[in-house]
Design goal:
Blueprint: E1 17-21, E2 32-36, H1 49-57
Antiparallel strand pairs: 1-2
Length: 64
């Protein structure tokens, strides 16, 4: 079963977010990083998809 995650727009430029994830069979985890397609802002690499999504969606908007 695939889970669909909703990513908020980039807090810096409002651009679209892209999720980069891969499977690490050795440690049974899904390292994941989320990045803005437009400006390149990104999260650190998290061990699990839901951690990365949560971190990205909780970021504060940049002050203008």
């Amino acid at each position: 079963m695939k889970v669909k995650y909703e990513l908020k727009p980039c807090p810096f430029c409002g651009g679209n977010a892209v999720m980069h994830t891969w499977r690490d069979e050795r440690f049974r985890r899904n390292p994941t990083r989320i990045e803005c397609y437009d400006c390149g802002a990104s999260t650190v690499i998290y061990d699990m998809i839901r951690q990365a999504v949560s971190a990205w969606n909780k970021r504060l908007e940049a002050k203008q």
